[in-house]
Write a structure and sequence with these properties.
CATH superfamily of the largest domain: Bira Bifunctional Protein, Domain 2
Largest sheet: 8 strands, mixed
Shape: elongated
Distance between the termini: 50 Å
Structural class: alpha+beta
Low-confidence stretches: none
Strand content: 15-25%
CATH topology of the largest domain: BirA Bifunctional Protein, domain 2
Radius of gyration: 27 Å
Mean pLDDT: 94
CATH class of the largest domain: Alpha Beta
Helix content: 40-55%
Oligomer: single chain
Number of strands: 18
Strand order of the largest sheet: 1-11-12-13-16-10-9-4
């Protein structure tokens, strides 16, 4: 959500900046709503002053024993008009909220300009793609051959874009989650939380999924409950409608949850394997900061996600998303893309974003600044990491010619072995 006064006073500049994100702001609608609201508020205030004056005059006339029936009729008429104007203002406020609620966040000035994902800017790379002495396989072949991934039975029980992890496959998923949580809590200083996997509409509005992206969510029929698309939603909303303790900032939280997405806007993309699923698990990193801290904290958060990839010996690159590739709520985003030899391509495994005050304003998350005045915190989040994509990256990068998959040394204490061998359900 945007600050209305700032929006009003910088309308043309904001519209120009939003255009780089591919969003055309309807300035005419905004100005019409703004003008109608101002007129209603101004008239209401004038009438309230007039009513106060008339009421005072009635009091004087009564003391003089004069008839005030005419003045009272006039005051009642003024009151009725004020009530109608106040109702108009409430309706216009709702229209304003709906209008602004559909306007994306403004890109930070450091975000590269661009029209497509081809304009994203690579920041750096870590690790070199492995040279194989045999043709590397994709995970959708490796998993079934190892007997640890079953897509056919998943389709039977739930449909497309679901997976069943079996034996060592399930164990690898669990090992990755525990490994990531331990690194982030013990090494990086995050506090672990286990939130609900369902949230109400207010929570999805607070983080920016509603109203625009309702079709991408799974809703529980007959209830104001939605399956979470990411732990970002419940964790950020822990402090909705609260004033946070300034001394606790920056506050770093992490959570391991299942995530549910309908993928309504991704028809035809990544249809093979487990890259794009309706249900997947993820370790999420969330930060609440003072405004002046948020961009340095974005660098830290992104680095924390990179550490996981490096410990798992997975080559990756960091990419700064261009303006048109930014998410709805994001002011700036880095994507981490892991190398997948079975597909001969880098694929996104984490998005690390600074939302500035956009989410905090929607969710009313504040703190007391140095002047003891309420101010909005800045919120950040990033995947630390997506478990399924990390799972498949290990299979593809660490596959061996004999059909086994080596487990990275950092993960071996969690997995209990140094390799995955073929097995059968």
């Amino acid at each position: 959500m945007h600050d209305l006064n700032f929006f009003r006073n910088n309308l043309d500049q904001i519209a120009e900046r939003l255009a780089t994100k591919g969003f055309q702001l309807d300035i005419g609608v905004f100005r019409a709503l703004d003008s109608q609201r101002r007129q209603a508020v101004t008239e209401s205030e004038q009438l309230k002053a007039e009513r106060n004056s008339a009421t005072a005059e009635i009091g004087k006339l009564r003391k003089q024993g004069q008839d005030t029936a005419e003045q009272q009729t006039r005051v009642r008429a003024i009151g009725e008009r004020i009530s109608a104007l106040d109702e108009d203002v409430r309706k216009l406020d709702d229209e304003f909220k709906d209008f602004l609620g559909r306007v994306p966040n403004v890109p930070h000035e450091s975000v590269p300009l661009g029209r497509t994902e081809a304009d994203n800017v690579e920041i750096h790379r870590w690790g070199s793609p492995r040279e194989f002495s045999f043709p590397p396989k994709a995970h959708w072949d490796l998993g079934p051959e190892l007997g640890i991934l079953d897509m056919e039975r998943a389709a039977k029980i739930a449909g497309a874009r679901f997976a069943v992890y079996v034996g060592q496959g399930a164990k690898l998923e669990r090992a990755l989650a525990n490994f990531m949580l331990d690194v982030h809590t013990y090494d990086h200083g995050y506090r672990e939380v286990l939130p609900p996997f369902m949230v109400n509409s207010a929570s999805l509005y607070g983080t920016g999924q509603l109203p625009k992206f309702a079709d991408d969510q799974f809703r529980c029929e007959g209830h104001d409950l939605w399956l979470i698309p990411t732990a970002e939603v419940p964790v950020t909303n822990l402090f909705r409608d609260e004033i946070m303790n300034a001394d606790s900032l920056p506050l770093s939280l992490c959570a391991y949850t299942a995530c549910f997405r309908s993928e309504a806007g991704s028809y035809g993309r990544d249809v093979r394997g487990i890259i794009r699923q309706h249900q997947f698990q993820k370790v999420e990193l969330v930060k609440f900061t003072r405004p002046e801290q948020s961009y340095s904290e974005l660098e830290k958060l992104t680095r924390h996600a990179e550490v996981i990839l490096e410990k798992l010996e997975l080559p990756y690159r960091r990419v700064a998303l261009c303006t048109s590739d930014l998410g709805f709520s994001s002011a700036k985003t880095y994507d981490l893309e892991v190398w997948l030899p079975g597909q001969n391509a880098y694929k996104e495994i984490s998005s690390c974003s600074n939302f500035e005050a956009f989410q905090a304003r929607r969710a009313q998350i504040r703190f007391k600044n140095e002047k003891n005045k309420s101010d909005f915190v800045h919120t950040l989040n990033g995947s630390g990491l997506a478990i399924g994509r990390t799972w498949l990256a290990i299979l593809e990068n660490h596959q061996q010619q004999d059909g086994c998959v080596l487990i990275p040394k950092a993960l071996q204490p969690y997995f209990g072995s140094d390799r995955i061998k073929p097995e059968r359900l």
